[in-house]
């Protein structure tokens, strides 16, 4: 049976997890052929923990030139996602990129353009899309049976981080090292799921508090308001300073409401659409009757393994990916728009003004505590 010979760039937190998953045999059809890391300690880890058949490199570009290599997993800090992915795609190597796909939508778009010009597949590690809960919510909204969407609200404050977490690396929570805080580091999955299920808004207004709860220079507390094309509105609230935190997604439609919280998905179904009830009811203070149903969200939730399996099958058999590069641009657009809105002190339109965003980000980077070097000098993936 043909196998997909794969290399991993960056064997820090996530890269080492992917390596262990592949060598365990959990990803049918994928073979770990090589790893690359600039950190000697991580290369030593690879030597001690990976099979002798896995080639170990210091330089990712040398690894990508290895004869027979067909795909790479990019698991390095955020700023290096774009240059390393593009370098791989130009070699016609298939790319699985960790989230966020990039720091700016311009970078992400250039990555997709490189993929379009190549013979390779470009995928993003959005493992939360494998959750039966979110898959069920998307299917229900997509079906249209609840009618037009009226409001969305996601409070996701269960990303608590202590000061010691941020102190664990001089690149953490810096504009030059990561390019953002909770929005870019912890919340890419939530932002992706939000747009995947509810669609993309057309304008955003946000308040990003930088260093509100920690001694850091990036945002650790965000409140955002969005508007959709059909007039629906939404809010997104996140923080790494709330304890205990909350993770609650509500989607209100004309025909009822979905609530995702604590692993459950609850449907509040109206007996008649709210708009119809409002127009016809003559009793003053009444409201539409409704039923409550906890939906079945059982089933396999393969997470990272599921995404890697889909990636492997997409290359070998032509089946669909969990998420391609274009999907990565969408959630990143929300993050970029929230930052830009907060920096400018006004509502911004989507798609985000890429040149203006990069201009404003450059100002932040120029004042960053991490002044020299690039994140490529580090191996630890800046996520979670």
Average pLDDT number = 95
- Helix percent band: 25-40%
Kindly provide the name of the CATH class of the largest domain.
Alpha Beta
| CATH fold category name of the largest domain | Dihydrodipicolinate Reductase, domain 2
Structural class: alpha/beta
Sketch the major β-sheet: 9 strands, mixed
- CATH homologous superfamily designation of the largest domain: Dihydrodipicolinate Reductase, domain 2
Total domain units: 2
Cα Rg: 22 Å
Measured distance between first and last alpha carbons: 35 Å
Summed up, the helix count is: 13
The poorly predicted ranges are 372-384
Count of β-strands:
15
Order of strands side by side in the largest beta sheet? 14-13-12-11-7-10-9-8-15
| Residues in β-strands, percent | 15-25%
Proper CATH architecture of the largest domain: 2-Layer Sandwich
Task: Kindly describe this structure.
This protein folds into two domains: 4-127 and 302-323, NAD(P)-binding Rossmann-like Domain (Rossmann fold), CATH 3.40.50.720; 129-299 and 330-371, Dihydrodipicolinate Reductase, domain 2. It contains 13 helices and 15 strands. It has helices at residues 13-23, 40-49, 60-64, 81-90, 105-116, 132-143, 163-166, 182-185, 188-198, 274-280, 303-317, 325-344, 354-366, and strands at 4-9, 30-36, 55-57, 71-74, 94-97, 122-124, 149-156, 203-210, 219-227, 233-239, 247-253, 256-261, 264-270, 290-294, 348-349. The strands form two sheets. A nine-stranded mixed β-sheet has the order 14-13-12-11-7-10-9-8-15. The chain has a six-stranded parallel β-sheet with strand order 3-2-1-4-5-6, sandwiched between helices. Strand 4, helix 4 and strand 5 form a beta-alpha-beta unit. The longest helix has 20 residues, at 325-344. Residues 372-384 have low confidence and may be disordered.
């Amino acid at each position: 049976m043909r196998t997909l010979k794969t290399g991993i760039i960056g064997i820090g937190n996530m890269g080492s997890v992917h390596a262990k998953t592949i060598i365990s045999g959990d990803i049918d059809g994928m073979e770990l052929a090589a790893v690359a890391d600039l950190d000697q300690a991580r290369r030593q880890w690879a030597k001690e923990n990976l099979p002798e058949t896995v080639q170990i490199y210091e330089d990712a570009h040398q690894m990508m030139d290895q004869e027979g290599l067909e795909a790479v997993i990019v698991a390095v800090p955020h700023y290096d996602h774009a240059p390393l992915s593009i370098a791989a795609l130009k070699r016609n190597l298939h790319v699985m990129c960790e989230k966020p796909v990039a720091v700016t939508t311009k970078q992400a778009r250039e990555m997709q353009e490189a993929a379009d010009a190549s013979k390779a597949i470009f995928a993003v590690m959005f493992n939360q899309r494998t959750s039966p809960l979110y898959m069920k919510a998307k299917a229900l909204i997509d079906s249209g049976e609840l009618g037009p969407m009226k409001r969305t609200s996601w409070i996701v404050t269960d990303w608590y981080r202590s000061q010691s977490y941020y102190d664990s690396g001089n690149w953490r929570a810096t504009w030059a090292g990561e390019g953002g805080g909770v929005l870019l580091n912890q919340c890419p999955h939530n932002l992706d799921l939000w747009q995947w299920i509810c669609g993309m808004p057309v304008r955003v207004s946000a308040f990003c508090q930088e260093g509100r709860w920690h001694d850091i220079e990036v945002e650790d507390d965000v409140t955002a308001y969005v508007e959709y094309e059909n007039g629906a509105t939404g809010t997104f609230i996140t923080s790494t300073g709330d304890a205990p935190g909350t993770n609650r997604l509500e989607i209100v439609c004309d025909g009822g409401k979905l609530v995702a919280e604590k692993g459950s998905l609850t449907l509040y179904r109206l007996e008649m659409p709210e708009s119809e009830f409002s127009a016809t009811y003559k009793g003053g203070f009444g409201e539409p009757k409704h039923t409550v149903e906890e939906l079945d969200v059982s089933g396999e939730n393969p997470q990272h393994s599921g995404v890697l399996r889909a990636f492997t099958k997409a290359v070998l058999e032509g089946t669909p990916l969990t998420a391609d590069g274009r999907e990565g641009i969408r959630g990143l657009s929300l993050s970029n728009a929230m930052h830009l809105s907060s920096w400018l002190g006004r509502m911004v339109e989507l798609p985000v003004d890429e040149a203006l965003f990069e201009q404003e980000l450059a100002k932040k980077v120029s004042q960053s505590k991490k002044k020299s070097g690039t994140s490529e000098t580090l191996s630890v993936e800046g996520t979670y």
